[in-house]
């Protein structure tokens, strides 16, 4: 089954169970101070759970563009190094807003996976919330009893608050959950260590695919839990992981979601995925990051120096540097992958193909700007490394990290990443001090500067309003990076 067929089958399954198929919300969130990017399918329905908005359809299903690079759910460091965490991923979901609850949610999930998708039952594990006395939360007996009718008891695992009590962020709707995990190892490996022992243990082949959340509480800003006005179901399944399981692969990157991108990157770089670990990580990082970047830009979020825009810029610079260092890509290359994505997402996220030219242009401009300073920045880092090694030290000072940021456009996390690769660390507190000092300096300076410069300094975010504005932003970029 192709990934596109898998997505359709999921949506149609729930459509046949009276769910309304709705569109993904944008990945970039504009009006929620608690969240910068959509990190789960439930975000767009938050107000239904809280009872702030009248429910249009009690049952809904969709595939949601998610990004997990900041806040409570931040997977950035894992991406590319493992084979199943992405920055941007699709979360397939079905919801009940005060309609059905645990029984239907669990039975349908099991039916879809084992009957429709024909995943082997003896490779699946399920988990239920074990409870947490410190918050007066009970063991989820109800979910356990439902599962017991479907799977042998030895395949049901008790999970703690970290894994089995889902929370969107520091505050907001939350509740106990039941998850489904799959063991993709060989029979031999399974003989050696039972899959049950590897669930929730970061094993690349024993992975979580689906989370069924039973929304019952609202976490308030003071940390306390309050009952929601009604009980709801919120499920989220990692689409790329589901494709891996159904297509019989051992890595998300071996599914047809990623192979066209890897092939194109191979053609562009003259290298081949699957030969050298260092290059493979770079391949994975790049084909992952381009999805996050392209879909953010098509959502109207340009790379910038603030907030969401800076997150996108950081992801882009990270990808460019992986290509530069490990795949010998010294010219802009990321933008060349956009056409593959635009085609792939044509039916599901048509906003990308509709703005393909713009997206390519923005990305190419941003790559070009960073490549102008990247080489010198890397040289500077080499000199710093040599200096530290002479002094038998391992910490890059805040002042130096700030110089790399300010002069060469190296986001702090990029310098930290390169430092880690070389067995070094960074004085982050020192960096923040330098940053604060510069902000003070520029506050007075900004008054005399042009309007463009003020945009950069004053913390206003940049979003796509039209081509003219885009040209202006490109100029700011150039200005900032020379
Ligand atoms: P994990 O434990 O693997 O980090 P999670 O428990 O953080 O996943 P949930 O918040 O429960 O994930 O999200 C629901 C589903 O979304 C997961 O079961 C998984 O299939 C998928 N998922 C979560 N994070 C990612 C990611 N970074 N990349 C791809 N899929 C993901
Ligand atoms: Mg996670
Ligand atoms: Mg988990
Ligand atoms: Mg989970």
UniProtKB/TrEMBL annotation:
Its EC number is 6.1.1.7. This is Alanine--tRNA ligase. One of its GO terms (biological process) is alanyl-tRNA aminoacylation. It is found in: Cytoplasm. Its main location: cytoplasm. It is an enzyme of class 6 (ligase). The keyword Phosphoprotein does not apply. Keywords: Aminoacyl-tRNA synthetase, ATP-binding, Coiled coil, Cytoplasm, Ligase, Metal-binding, Nucleotide-binding, Protein biosynthesis, RNA-binding, tRNA-binding, Zinc. It catalyses: tRNA(Ala) + L-alanine + ATP = L-alanyl-tRNA(Ala) + AMP + diphosphate. Consists of three domains; the N-terminal catalytic domain, the editing domain and the C-terminal C-Ala domain. The editing domain removes incorrectly charged amino acids, while the C-Ala domain, along with tRNA(Ala), serves as a bridge to cooperatively bring together the editing and aminoacylation centers thus stimulating deacylation of misacylated tRNAs. Catalyzes the attachment of alanine to tRNA(Ala) in a two-step reaction: alanine is first activated by ATP to form Ala-AMP and then transferred to the acceptor end of tRNA(Ala). Also edits incorrectly charged Ser-tRNA(Ala) and Gly-tRNA(Ala) via its editing domain.
């Amino acid at each position: 089954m192709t990934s596109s067929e898998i997505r359709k089958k999921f949506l149609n399954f729930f459509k046949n169970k009276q769910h309304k198929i709705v569109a993904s919300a944008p990945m970039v969130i504009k009006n929620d101070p608690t969240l910068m990017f959509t990190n789960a399918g439930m975000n767009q329905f938050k107000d239904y759970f809280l009872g702030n908005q009248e429910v249009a359809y009690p049952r809904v299903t969709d595939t949601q563009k998610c990004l997990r690079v900041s806040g409570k759910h931040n997977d950035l460091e894992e991406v590319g190094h493992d084979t199943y965490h992405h920055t941007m991923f699709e979360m397939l979901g079905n919801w009940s807003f005060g309609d059905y609850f645990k029984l239907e949610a669990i039975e349908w999930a099991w039916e879809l996976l084992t009957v429709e998708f024909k995943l082997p039952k003896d490779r699946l594990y399920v988990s239920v919330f074990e409870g947490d006395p410190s918050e007066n939360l009970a063991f989820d007996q109800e979910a356990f009893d439902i599962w017991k009718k479907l799977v042998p008891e030895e395949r049901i695992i008790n999970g703690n608050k970290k894994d089995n009590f889902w929370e969107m962020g520091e505050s907001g709707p939350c509740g106990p959950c039941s998850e489904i995990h799959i063991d993709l190892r060989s029979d031999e490996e399974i003989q050696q260590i039972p899959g049950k022992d590897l669930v929730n243990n970061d094993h690349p082949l024993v992975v979580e695919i689906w989370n069924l959340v039973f929304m019952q509480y609202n976490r308030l800003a003071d940390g306390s839990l309050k009952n929601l006005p009604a009980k709801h179901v919120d499920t989220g399944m990692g689409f790329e992981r589901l494709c891996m399981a159904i297509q019989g692969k051992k890595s998300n990157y071996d599914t047809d979601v990623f192979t066209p991108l890897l092939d194109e990157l191979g053609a562009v770089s003259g290298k081949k995925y699957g030969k050298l670990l260092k290059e493979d990580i770079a391949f994975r990082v790049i084909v992952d990051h381009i999805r996050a970047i392209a879909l953010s830009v098509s959502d109207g979020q340009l790379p910038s120096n603030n907030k969401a825009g800076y997150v996108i810029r950081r992801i882009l610079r990270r990808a460019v540097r992986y290509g530069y260092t490990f795949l010998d890509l010294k010219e802009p290359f990321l933008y060349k992958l956009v056409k593959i994505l635009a085609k792939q997402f044509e039916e599901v996220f048509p906003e990308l193909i509709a703005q393909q030219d713009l997206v390519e242009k923005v990305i190419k401009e941003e790559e070009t700007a960073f490549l102008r300073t990247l080489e010198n920045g890397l040289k500077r880092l080499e000199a710093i490394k040599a200096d530290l090694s002479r002094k038998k030290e391992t910490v890059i000072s805040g002042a130096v990290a700030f110089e790399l940021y300010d002069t060469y456009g190296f986001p702090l996390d990029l310098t930290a990443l390169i430092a880690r690769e070389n067995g070094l660390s960074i004085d982050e507190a020192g960096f923040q001090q330098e940053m604060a000092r510069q902000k003070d300096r520029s506050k007075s300076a900004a008054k005399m500067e042009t309007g463009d410069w003020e945009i950069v300094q004053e913390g206003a975010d940049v979003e796509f309003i039209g081509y003219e504005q885009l040209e202006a932003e490109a100029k700011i970029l150039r200005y900032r990076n020379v």
